[in-house]
Amino acid sequence: MEGNKTGEKAQSSFELLITLAFGLVILIPIVVIAFVQIANSNASLASVEAQQAANKLSSVATLIGSEGPPARQLVQVSVPEGVKSIYIGNTNNGVGHEIIFVIVAPINLSYITAYTPVNVSGNLSTLTSQGTYLINVTATGQCQSNLNLSCVYLSPVT
């Protein structure tokens, strides 16, 4: 009789173990899918925030460029999480018409750009960590990277 009770206990323990294993098999993929969705939504939020920052810088650069030298303005921008680099003018920080935020996305890099009709140049490469920064936007008669062009120069306030 005692051997029978031990067998019943072992059988019920085994059945409980099978039930828990089946539950985990169903639960683990759901948790993985949830984490993937959260990562994608964080990347989307960072892209939207970067687009807002790029548009703000573009608008101020256009305004300052239309006023001409010696116009200048301080702008407060919020840099989102995941920014790898910020290029002004072009991807070499030369004279151009774009403000480019490079963001680390779940699969690869994402390039967020804003166009400005005036020549822009600058160096915001130090602004890669999340936070709020002051940017000095200055109209110049000669760009630092190309002395033959007038442009709007963007630089962080230190």
Which sequence of strands runs across the widest sheet? 1-5-6-4-3-2
Distance between the termini: 84 Å
Order of helices and strands: HEEEEEE
How many domains, in number, for the residues?
Answer: 1
Mean model confidence by pLDDT: 86
Query: What structural class do you assign from the helix and strand content?
Result: alpha+beta
- Outline the biggest β-sheet: 6 strands, mixed
Helix content range of the residues, please?
40-55%
Poorly predicted sequence stretches spanning 5 or more consecutive residues: none
Question: What's the number of extended β-strand segments?
Answer: 6
How much β-strand is present in the residues? Answer: 25-35%
Number of helices: 1
Question: Radius of gyration from the CA trace?
Answer: 27 Å
Please state the overall shape, judged from the principal axes of the Cα atoms: rod-shaped
Oligomer: single chain
Q: How is this structure best described in words?
A:
- By secondary structure, the protein is of the alpha+beta class.
- It has one domain.
- The protein is 42% helix and 34% strand.
- The chain contains one helix and six strands, in the order αββββββ.
- A hairpin with a 4-residue loop joins strand 3 and strand 4.
- The longest helix has 66 residues.
- It starts with a helix and ends with a strand.
Write the layout of secondary structure elements.
Layout lengths: L1 H66 L4 E8 L3 E7 L6 E9 L4 E14 L8 E10 L10 E6 L2
Parallel strand pairs: 4-6
Antiparallel strand pairs: 1-5, 2-3, 3-4, 5-6
